């Protein structure tokens, strides 16, 4: 008898007591149970076949299954026969007759993540990627291993995913974590082991753009002013309100759903939950006006607070759904969708191809440090924008152009002469 089989028998005896035996039945596992009736070799016995391959790597799963059978057949209130216990286990099993119920595994996996307090937006993205995985697993050719599944996933779902980009990295991380979890739970066998991080790199690829090219630039003050004026001229007061709040106050797009007032002072509630599920205190927000348009930020906030102007309908609809969904992402998506259909915005993008709706938030940081003779400190700007000074410096120092740096140096030197 192989050493692993002997060890398996010992473990079953420790877990379940005497009377249980497992043997190979073809490629599967046969379970024997002998009842202790004091008849020695004539004690009655029963058996059932498990749909678990009888091999060393499945020993923990075989042991745990026998323990479940033991618990059901020795239940003091409602003891089952071995056949009844087997039927009850297999009814709930996500793997039957060698066929994996991937939908059940996905639902149970996501439930465990939710129980751990995983952030709703993260859970949403993971669910989306696992739904893609299920399409791959049910497609043709049908993957028979974790390696095949990940390779086919990359071919089927990455048409718009940037080479070397975040979506490629995170989707493979999610798929790998899913397979690993169920292997550790002894539900999937080792055929479903995912690609290692090193093996995934070939699928993910290497980005062909530099860090500077990746970073979203700011909408410059003159362009922001022209855009806001055009919105008012076009009678788009709703879009003007949303754009001015983001651009003048440095809001994240989804923070359109998070503005509150305490003692008449505007604040933004925390929309980014920490890993421990705790919330930060609402942060103060203040406008940085554009030169020649002093007081515009205060007027915009007054319009918002009093209802003189409302946010776009699609944005308000998503704001109303935040509590139900548990995350804010769709608020920002709704605003982006409206802006990207607005002709003057598309004209601005055509002239500045790297800008995105998020560039409006970056415009706040640009004005904070380069928009006037007197700028504000990085500490103040970082706090108003809701991130750390290190994050602020890492992001907003990267896209300073030569013209801006030259202007700052000249301004500094001129101030020395004035003294």
Describe what you observe in this structure.
By secondary structure, the protein is mainly alpha-helical. It folds into three domains: 3-93, no CATH class; 99-208; 221-418. 55% of the residues lie in helices and 8% in strands. The strands form three sheets. It has a three-stranded antiparallel sheet. A three-stranded antiparallel sheet has the order 6-7-8, with no helix packed on it. Strands 4-5 form a two-stranded antiparallel sheet. A hairpin with a 2-residue loop joins strand 6 and strand 7 (265-268). The longest helix is centred in the middle third of the chain and has 19 residues, at 166-184.
Give short descriptive properties of this protein.
mainly alpha; 20 helices; 55% helix; 3 domains; 419 residues; elongated; three-stranded antiparallel sheet
Short characterization:
By secondary structure, the protein is mainly α.
Number of strands: 8
Distance between the termini: 94 Å
Q: Tell me the number of structural domains.
A: 3
Can you tell me the residue ranges where pLDDT is under 50 for at least 5 consecutive residues? none
What's the mean pLDDT score? 86
Query: Based on helices, strands and strand pairing, what is the structural class?
Result: mainly alpha
Rg from C-alpha positions? 31 Å
Q: What is the H/E string?
A: HEEEHHEEHHHHHHHHEEEHHHHHHHHH
Helix count, DSSP H or I runs of 4 or more residues: 20
